[in-house]
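--- STAGE predict ---
source: upstream dedup step, 1 unique chain passed
mode: sequence only
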Amino acid sequence: MMNNVPPPPQSGIPEFAQAQGTIPLSYVVHRLVEKSYGDLLSLSESLHTKSDEERKKRLVEYLEGARERFIRLLVLVKWAHQLPNLANASKIIDFLNQQDFYIRDAADNLCHMHGRLYNARMPVYDIPTAVDVITTGTY
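--- STAGE serialize ---
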């Protein structure tokens, strides 16, 4: 039985996944199966010297833990099935955030432009006095 022991699971995340910031679902499934299989092998080796009651207790503890891990995996798989919808929603949110940035930037630039254009105004001419000078010839 010792000859069939799998090699210990790799430590760490694959390099390609680290570069993307994601972990492939197949890698998670593989690691979970490896861990469960390794735990089951070590449990089977340690149960030879235990009493019948202790064997049952340890086996139930292992099965409850494995069941919980596989239920979590099932939830993860169902969530991953919805990933295309989440990716589209994420793209829409990114687009809207970008548009919000553009609108805020345009409003800020308009506000700054208003302050800079204050000195570029044409002076307000005194039209009534100018008409009076043209018509009467005196000031």
